[in-house]
Write a structure and sequence with these properties.
The chain has one domain (about 5-80). About 0% of the residues lie in helices and about 55% in strands. It has strands spanning about 5-15, 20-25, 35-40, 45-50, 60-65, 70-80. The two termini are about 15 Å apart.
């Protein structure tokens, strides 16, 4: 079985209307119980994430916030 790549990316949140958290995770695997970034109202924050990909090379971003939030995912590389 071939290993799936792990994505190294900067996950940034901006235009946050309320507090919340986000989790990056392999799309086909399911959301873990941990977060990659936490924010409060009006924050613009960034955090380096190392997220395994699913067999198709994809990740998902779970947004737990009661209002809208903009995300920027800046991929800097991957490794296997």
């Amino acid at each position: 079985m071939a290993a799936t790549p792990t994505l190294a990316a900067m996950l940034t949140v901006t235009k946050t209307a309320s507090g919340g958290y986000a989790t990056a995770y392999p799309t086909a695997v399911g959301k873990p119980a941990t977060s990659n970034i936490n924010w409060g109202p009006g924050d613009t924050l960034a955090n380096l994430t190392l997220s395994p990909t699913d067999p198709n090379g994809q990740i998902s971003i779970y947004n737990y916030s009661s209002d809208s939030t903009d995300f920027v995912v800046d991929c800097s590389g991957y490794y296997t």
